[in-house]
Amino acid sequence: MSSPTVRAPLGRRIFGRQPLGLLFSSPYLAFVLLVFAFPIVYAVWISFHDFFFAAPGAEPDRPFVGFDNYIYAFSNPQVIRSFGNVGIFLLINVPLTVVLSMLLASALNKVVHARTFLRVSFYVPYVTASVAVVAVWLFLFNGSGLVNTLLGPLAPDPSWLINENLAMPVIALYVTWKQLGFYILLYLAALQNVPKELYESASTDGAGAIRRFFSVTVPGVRPATLLVLLISTVTGANLFTEPYLLTNGGGPNGASTSPVLMMYQLGIQQGQPDVAAAIGIVLVVGVLIIAFIQNRFVGERES
Amino acid sequence: MTKLGTTIRYIVLFVGAIVFLFPFYYMIVGSLQTETDPTIAGAFPNPANLSLDNYVNVNERIDLVSGLVNSGIFTGGVLLCTVVFGVLVGYALAMLQWRGRRATFALALLVQVIPFQLLQIPLYVLIARDYGLADTHVGMILPFAINSTAVLIFRQYFLQLPKELFEAARIDGAGELRLLWSVALPLVRPALVTAVLLTFIGPWNEFLWPFLITKDASMQPLAVSLANYISTVAASTDNPFGAILAGAVVLAAPVVVLFIVFQRYFVSSDLGSGVKG
After folding, report:
1. In chain B, what residues touch A117 (CB-CB under 8 Å)?
2. Min CA distance, B71 vs chain A (Å)?
3. Residue of chain A with shortest Cα separation from B150
4. Mind listing the domains of chain B with CATH numbers?
5. Which tens digit of pLDDT belongs to each residue from A278-289?
6. Cα–Cα distance, B85 to B97 (Å, whole number)
7. Contact check, Cβ <8 Å, A123/B259
8. CATH no. of A69-298
9. Rounded CA gap, A93 and A87, in Å?
10. Which of A51, A87, B138, B155 shows its CA 20 to 30 Å from the CA of B103?
């Protein structure tokens, strides 16, 4: 790039008053182009072509195949099941996340003592690697683990992570617990913006604590709720580490596979990146539709 | 505010804290048990059953030091790129007038909602196959190099600085790089800590990407080698949980310690502004 400062008048006309801004931003822009923009376009391209891994330097023929990869992917019952699984996951994880993080954040916002201790303990699972925390959950929830020991005769059989009906709910609970700190953080920020006067006037009108929560807090943090819904949906759709490790690769019998796990198994292990790209695109379109609905119903209405 | 309400609030919060902290306590206790004890008694440390054997055992199967070094290089590379290039773009977004500023800001917001599952396959094809960067630190770092949330945090902090300060320095003839280095940066030190902390937990904890592109055990970050150990062990008959938990403690400890030391920088307003833009 020729230095814009040398040809100041022309440079300023093209690049704005302080063209240096563009120079400062160029590494970031190059990064976004290389790591986000181009790969997204490439993913769409791959999903419509017969694409396979080739040796570096080789230029194999990759014919356009229309929707073949999509049809191939979704005639696989395992793939359909993985989408169903992530649906179950989201139905448990997202509402639970919203309710628990809102409740804990508003309780945390009002306490005076032990605030730092409480805050830190809520955030610790969020900042820790899932791989590390999964290890403890495996220990807690395995057949002869502490959870089953405590439950005694009430312990499920087969045990949690090898039970077709329980594997996905346990994963959903795990992720809710693991991520909750982050959402509490978002709600705490939002609660600072709810005017104190609203609580006071609600109190003088005779509203009790529960009434105040529903008529002042809940509407007051609605922008944060939308954010929590969106982020938890995107995070949930990205599910990979937990079924890979907690249920040993989506077991039992595919009861806890996720689309991203299928993408890994089909795309990289079995060498069908075109099929995996098609799954990825369907998944993202699904997430966008859910996000749109959430935005429609929870987002701020402009009038 | 009634006494009863306050009491209930504290009970709920402390029960919550126990639910959040117990697995970590149990991780440490389990990692120190010579004989794995999944009974209720096993949740309490028994001096007769405590040793560091598990740490020795796991270190024989996966090289903890090399895993930590790889995690460190991965995380360090991301931090370096984020701090250098992220501060530059954050400064440009907040302080300078140039064409494309709004578009760049919109891009930084948009990037945060792009799910990795869409990028997984094309990035793997590009980085591992086309560029031949599989089993390299550069390949690991590249997709995470500049954390967009950190960029937004930097921008937010620079916006709060008084404009007059900069106008005055510019009239005195200070160049933008000098302004950034000796006026703006010293004033936003808390933002640096917050952004570094937030950026740190990304690559340190990341599993999927380094797992995809490192097959060579000597290049794997600790999260990947520990995960491989867990998944091979889970398939075998006897479950040496102690060794797994010891590995988990080694992986978790650096982040948890850093987080506790710097927790006052991990406050809602800073991160909230970063996430919300």
Report:
1. 17
2. 12
3. A28
4. 3-51 (no CATH), 69-220+264-276 (1.10.3720.10)
5. 999 999 999 989
6. 18
7. yes
8. 1.10.3720.10
9. 10
10. B138
Q: Which residues of A touch B129 (CB under 8 A)?
A: 53-54, 56
ipTM: 0.88
How many Cα atoms sit within 13 Å of B149 on the Cβ side? 21
pLDDT at residue number B277: 37
Q: Per the structure block, which two tokens stand in for B2?
A: 């009634």
For residue A175, give how far its alpha carbon lies from the nearest alpha carbon of chain B (Å). Answer: 12
Judged by a CB distance cut-off of 8 A, whether residue B87 touches chain A is no
Q: Supply the angle between the helices B64-95 and B53-61 in degrees, to the nearest 10.
A: 80
Q: What is the model's pLDDT at position B75?
A: 96
For A193, residues 6+ apart whose C-beta sits below 8 A from its C-beta are A220
Q: Over the stretch B29-84, which tens digit does the pLDDT of each residue have? A: 988 888 777 778 778 887 877 888 888 888 888 889 999 999 999 999 999 999 99
* Residues of chain B where predicted confidence (pLDDT) is lower than 50: 237, 276-277
**Partner residue opposite A149 with nearest CB, options B39, B212, B264:** B39
| Rounded CA separation B148/B199 (Å) | 9
Inter-chain CB proximity A280 and B118 less than 8 Å: yes
- The mean pLDDT value of chain A amounts to 88
